[in-house]
Amino acid sequence: MSLSAGLRWDLNPPPSVSGAQDYTYSGNLALPSTVGLAPLGTPLYKTTYTNFAPRVGVAITLRNEPGHELVLRGGGGLFYDTGQSLSHLFGVGYEMGAGYSRNLKSVVGTPVSFPLPLSVINAPAPAPVAPYSLNYTVDRNFFPPSAVQWSASLEQAFGNVQSLIIGYVGSEGRNLTRWTKYNYGALNPSFASFNALTNGPGSSYNSLQVQYKRRALRNVQVQAAYTWSHAIDWASTDYYGGLPLQRGNSDQDVRNNFSAALVYNLPTQYAERWMKTTLSGWAVDMRSFARTGFPVQLQGANLTDPISGETYSGRLDYNGGNPYVNKAAIPGGRQFNPSVFSVPTIVGGTGNSPRNFLRGFGAASTDVAIERVLPLYERFNLRFRAESFNIFNHPNFGALNVTCGTSTAGAQCNNTILGQASNTLSDALGGLASIYQQGGPRSLQFALKLQF
Question: Residue 1's CB: how many other CB atoms inside 10 A?
């Protein structure tokens, strides 16, 4: 048995500015009457000193017979994130009054020549005047997000070069970040509407993983893996719009994922000279993958948040019928069934359809490369390589049409192309060829290199 254990302590104080300080708020965002202007230099949020993260790993040899070894592995741990990405804190954390958003001209009044003296660069921020322009801020009770991760696997050897691994991997996200829109209005006239980075609900991931490995023997090397997984969360982005949180499939949930790779080097030893000249030095590489589709969320009527005034897409009502329709004449041969979806009867209603319960199209592709190395003279070699990406030219579809077609309360969706693919996967991801990005049509490339 091999055992490894450790304890990590994460200390992530809030970001601060060197030189001139700036203003933030004080009080509790959930209690508008308590929110006011904090003294100059007040930290964005409280520092957490209890982020202790234990982790442990173990490997046990259950059977040690040569060629039939059986090993059990397992582990788990707690991992903290800083929650201090550029878009979250450093760029917007102090956008209050004359915060980070001010420019040099607003500081010195008129354009000046460089270099600026430190007295100008570090000039104190002028005290904001109510009503304060608090564009973005951070909840003063913000807590660093974290994840608990755990795994277990069994590896069985079949001879000296082959093994099969069956494993389970899981994780749970906690205190994930989210942007919350506030508009106090008459509750606190000193502040206009603003966004605050707060802690939201968590997420979960569970997966069964199977992997077959064959190390190089007799010029063949193979690796294949399959994963069944389920990712669940309450929201998959930091900003949720005005919709209430709903637990469901994550935007990144892919249930089935398969990949395989093969390398075959043709033999180099031949009895006949012409066979050695013709066949030696060749190698074939192949990689294949296939996965099921990502979740798709249909868009209902445009709704307006009565608090923030922002607009967002609502959800739809679902009557329980088959949400898919097969049509041979359209890309992929399938679309969503508009007759089973309708706009909620209650104006502004969010609909009863489960979040992310529909699926888009899956993807599959096989890439093949043929290579030969030709010795020329001493250390000079000529390397020829021909590569085909998506060699079978399998169509992979990207974005789908997700609009209902009507915003009338209680009306059935009338978009006849609901759920039809509007482009290929490559176009949806950026329009690159399959040489550089999955989801494109078949691409070929040839290379000839002189090596010395």
Answer: 7
Q: Rounded to an integer, what distance in angstroms lies between the CA atom of residue 349 and that of residue 286?
A: 51
Whether the pLDDT of residue 36 is over 90: the answer is no
Average pLDDT over residues 26-50: 87
Beta strands in 295-351 (DSSP E): 295-296, 302-304, 311-313, 317-318, 324-326, 334-336, 341-342
pLDDT for residue 115:
79
Length of the chain: 452
Residue-level pLDDT at 3? 97
Q: Strand (E) positions, 100-161? A: 136-138, 146-158
Mean pLDDT of all residues in the chain?
86
Q: How far apart are CA 349 and CA 315, in angstroms?
A: 8
Contact 35, 188 (CB under 8 A): yes
Contacting residues for 368 by C-beta, under 8 A, at least 6 apart: 284, 285, 286, 387, 388, 391
CB atoms within 10 A of CB 388: 19
In the numeric block, the tokens 């868009």 are attached to: 299
What one-letter code names the amino acid at 199? N
361 vs 40: which has the higher pLDDT: 361
Rounded Cα–Cα distance for residues 59 and 261 (Å): 27
> Helix and strand tally (H, E) in the chain?
4, 26
Q: Residue 427 belongs to what H/E stretch?
A: helix 425-429
Cβ proximity of 235 and 262 under 8 Å: no
Q: What is the pTM of this model?
A: 0.84
pLDDT of residue 196: 84
* pLDDT of amino acid 137: 81
Q: From CA 363, how far away is CA 429, in angstroms rounded?
A: 13
Task: Tell me the HSE value of 437 on the side-chain side, using a 13 A CA sphere.
Answer: 14
Q: Are 58 and 3 in contact (CB under 8 A)?
A: yes
Distance CA 50, CA 35 (A): 27
Choice among 5-14, 104-113, 373-382 with the minimum mean pLDDT: 104-113
Sign for the CA dihedral angle at 348, 352, 355, 360 comes to negative
Please give the single-letter amino acid code of residue 147: A
Number of neighbouring beta carbons within 10 Å of residue 60: 12
Across 438-451, average pLDDT: 93
Q: CB atoms < 10 A from the CB of 299, how many?
A: 14
Residues 249, 236: Cα–Cα separation, whole Å:
9
Residues 195-219 have pLDDT tens digits of: 888 898 999 999 999 999 998 777 8
Please name which of 397, 401, 402, 203 lies closest in space to residue 297, comparing C-alpha atoms: 402
Give pLDDT, residue 19: 61
